[in-house]
UniProtKB/TrEMBL annotation:
Protein name listed in UniProt: Neurochondrin
Gene: NCDN
GO cellular component entries: dendrite
InterPro entries: Neurochondrin (IPR008709)
Top-rank lineage group of the source organism: Eukaryota
Pfam families in UniProt: Neurochondrin
Length: 581
C-alpha cells in the first residue's frame, strides 16, 4: 500500500498542476514526517521532497519551514557524522534543502544546521579527495554562500583558514577546467565551475571587507594573487567563445564573475581585459537587445547553469568595471569605438523606465537604481575626458532630453538622493557642452530641469544653532546620511552650474529669483569661520559668473550684501567682479 501511495504521489508530481496541489494539500509536511520516521520507503519520501523543492522551493518553505528544517537538521547531522560514501551522497542532496530566503542564520535550529555543515565541509575539504568527491563539496559550499554569504563560516583562525582554502580550491578548479584546450572537458564541468565562481566572488568581497574582516592581510594578498590567475583563465576562455555559444548560461556566469573582479581590481590584467572589451560590449549588447522588454526583471541567482526563461542582464554586472575603465585613455577609446556609449544610453533609458514603472512612487533602491547611478558615473567620465564625443554623438542629445525630464520627477522623492545628485550633476555638465542645442534655449523642460537642479544644490546646506550660541553652516539633515556619496557630485554640480551661466542667457534670471535668495539667507545667518575653503570657492564660482553676466545681476548681488560677503569670506574674485562698472 505504501508503494502504491508513493507511486500515486510521483505521478501527481509529474503533472503540470500537480506540484502546486501537493504543496497546498499538506504533502510536504507528510513527506518530511515519513522521512524522519525512517519507516518503510522513507528514501522515496526524500526523493519526492527533492522533486517538489526543485519545482516550488519558495512555496514549500513558506508553508512548511519547521518540517523542512527538521529534515535539514537530520541531513546535516548525518553529513557531519558519516565517515563513508554517504557523506558525498549527502553533498548532492543537501543543496536542495538550503533555502535562499529567509536566511537560515535567523533561526537557532538553522544556525545549528549551518554549523554542522561547516564542520562537515571543513573535514571533507581538508582530506585528499578524488574529483568526483570534491565537486559536490564545492557545490554545497557555493550553495551555502548564495544563501548566507560568509555568515555560516565562524570567525577566528579556523574559519579564516577554511575560507581561504575554499577560495583557493575554487581558483584551482577554474584554472584546471578553463585552461583545458578540450571543449568537451569544459562542457561536463560547467556546473562545478559556476559554483566555484560563487566562491571566488565571496573571496573578492572578503578581501575588500574592512569591518571585522575574516581574513588577515597576508591571506588577502595571497588570495588576490591566486584569484588573478583564475581570472586570467576566465579571460582566456571567453576569448575563444564562438557566436553560436553566446546563449549558454555558463558564458553569462563567466562574464558576471569577471564583472565582479573588474569592479574592484582595476590594475591587474589590464592588457588582457582591454583585449576582451570588444567581446564584452558585443555580448552585453546582444543580451540586452534580445531581451529588452524583460531585461529588468530580477535575475534568479542560481547555481544551476540550466538558465532561466529571462534573458540575463550582463550589463548590470559590467557597469562598475566600465566606470573605472572609462577614466583611462586606452580602455575608453576601445569602449567608444565598440559603440558602448550608444548602448549605455539605451540601457539608461530602459532602466529609467523600469524604475518609474511602479505607479505612485519610485521603487525602493533596486538593481535598476544602482545601474542608473553607475551609468551616470560612466557618462560623467566621458563628459570630463571626451567632451567632443558628447558634442558629436547624437546619442547624447537624446540622453540630455531624458535628463531634463527625469530630474523634476526625481527630486521630490526623498529616498533617491544619490540618483538625484547623479542626474542633476550629469545634466549640468552636459548642458555646459551642449549649450547651443535647441532644447536648452529657455524651453519649459530646460527651465524645469534647472529649477530642480538649483533646488537640489541650494537645499544641501543649512544654518545650525551652535551649543555656545550663534549659527554655523552644516549639511542639511535630509542630505546627511547620503553626504559621503553625494558631496563630490554636489561640488561638481556647482562648478558646472557656474560654467552654464555665461552660456545660457536666460539662466542668470532664474538664479537670481531662487538660488541667490537662499544663499543670502544662509550667509547672513552663519559665522564666517564655519564655512570651509572648498564651500566658499563653490559659492564664489557661481557668484562671479553671475556678476559678470549683466549689470542687473551685479546690482542684485550688491543688494544682497555681496560686497560684505566678499569681504567676510575672502572672496577676492567676487570683490573684483563687483567693483567693475
Amino acid at each position: 500500500m505504501i508503494d502504491d501511495v508513493y507511486q500515486c504521489l510521483s505521478a501527481v508530481l509529474a503533472t503540470a498542476r500537480g506540484p502546486r496541489e501537493l504543496v497546498t494539500k499538506g504533502t510536504v509536511s507528510a513527506l518530511c514526517q515519513a522521512y524522519l520516521n525512517c519507516g518503510y520507503g522513507s528514501d522515496r519520501a526524500l526523493t519526492l521532497l527533492l522533486g517538489l523543492l526543485a519545482i516550488a522551493e519558495a512555496k514549500c518553505w513558506q508553508r512548511d519551514a519547521p518540517h523542512l528544517l527538521a529534515v535539514l537538521s537530520k541531513l546535516s547531522d548525518d553529513f557531519l557524522k558519516s565517515e563513508d560514501i554517504t557523506k558525498f551522497e549527502l553533498c548532492e542532496i543537501l543543496p536542495h534543502f538550503i533555502p535562499l530566503s529567509p536566511p537560515l542564520s535567523q533561526d537557532s535550529q538553522g544556525s545549528e544546521c549551518l554549523h554542522r555543515l561547516y564542520k562537515g565541509l571543513a573535514n571533507v575539504l581538508a582530506s585528499k579527495l578524488s574529483q568526483s568527491q570534491r565537486d559536490p563539496a564545492l557545490k554545497l559550499a557555493a550553495c551555502l554562500v548564495q544563501a548566507c554569504g560568509s555568515e555560516w563560516i565562524p570567525a577566528g583562525s579556523d574559519g579564516s583558514k577554511f575560507l581561504a582554502l575554499l577560495v583557493n580550491l575554487a581558483c584551482v578548479e577554474v584554472r584546471l577546467t578553463l585552461e583545458e584546450p578540450d571543449p568537451v572537458e569544459v562542457e561536463g564541468k560547467k556546473e562545478v565551475v559556476t559554483a566555484c565562481y560563487v566562491l571566488i566572488e565571496m573571496g573578492i568581497q572578503e578581501c575588500l571587507r574592512e569591518e571585522k574582516p575574516m581574513l588577515e592581510e597576508v591571506q588577502k594578498m595571497q588570495l588576490m594573487r591566486i584569484m588573478e590567475e583564475a581570472f586570467g583563465a576566465v579571460i582566456f576562455y571567453l576569448r575563444q567563445v564562438k557566436e553560436e555559444e553566446l546563449q549558454d548560461p555558463f558564458i553569462f556566469a563567466s562574464v558576471r564573475v569577471l564583472g565582479a573582479w573588474m569592479a574592484e581590481e582595476t590594475s591587474s590584467l589590464k592588457q588582457e581585459i582591454c583585449e576582451l572589451l570588444p567581446f564584452l560590449v558585443h555580448y552585453a549588447k546582444k543580451l540586452f537587445q534580445e531581451g529588452s522588454p524583460t531585461a529588468s526583471l530580477p535575475q534568479p541567482e542560481l547555481i544551476s547553469t540550466e538558465g532561466s526563461a529571462l534573458p540575463p542582464d550582463a550589463l548590470r554586472f559590467l557597469l562598475p568595471g566600465f566606470c573605472h575603465l572609462t577614466a583611462e585613455d586606452r580602455p575608453r577609446d576601445i569602449l567608444v569605438s565598440e559603440g558602448a556609449p550608444a548602448l549605455l544610453c539605451e540601457y539608461f533609458l530602459h532602466q529609467w523606465g523600469v524604475l518609474t514603472s511602479k505607479p505612485g512612487s519610485l521603487a525602493p533602491l533596486t538593481s535598476a537604481e544602482m545601474s542608473l547611478q553607475t551609468t551616470c558615473g560612466i557618462f560623467l567620465n566621458l563628459v570630463v575626458t571626451a567632451p567632443d564625443l558628447i558634442r558629436q554623438d547624437k546619442t547624447f542629445s537624446s540622453l540630455m532630453d531624458v535628463l531634463l525630464k527625469s530630474l523634476p520627477l526625481l527630486l521630490p522623492q526623498k529616498d533617491h538622493l544619490v540618483l538625484t545628485a547623479n542626474i542633476a550633476t550629469l545634466g549640468l555638465m552636459m548642458a555646459r557642452i551642449l549649450a547651443s542645442s535647441a532644447v536648452l534655449q529657455g524651453t519649459p523642460s530646460a527651465k524645469e530641469f534647472f529649477g530642480a537642479a538649483l533646488q537640489f544644490l541650494s537645499q544641501a546646506h543649512t544654518a545650525q544653532a551652535e551649543p555656545g550660541g550663534g549659527w554655523a553652516v552644516a549639511v542639511s539633515p535630509a542630505y546627511a546620511s547620503a553626504w559621503a556619496d553625494v558631496s563630490e557630485l554636489w561640488f561638481l554640480g556647482m562648478q558646472a552650474l557656474a560654467g552654464c551661466v555665461p552660456l545660457l542667457p536666460w539662466l542668470p534670471q532664474a538664479l537670481l529669483q531662487g538660488w541667490l535668495q537662499d544663499l543670502s539667507h544662509l550667509l547672513t545667518r552663519v559665522a564666517p569661520a564655519s564655512l570651509d575653503f572648498e564651500l566658499v570657492a563653490a559659492f564664489q564660482g557661481v557668484l562671479v559668473e553671475l556678476a559678470r553676466a549683466s549689470t542687473s545681476c551685479r546690482a542684485a548681488i550688491l543688494a544682497h550684501h555681496g560686497r560684505e560677503w566678499a569681504n567676510l569670506y575672502g572672496m577676492a574674485a567676487l570683490e573684483q567682479g563687483l567693483s567693475k562698472p
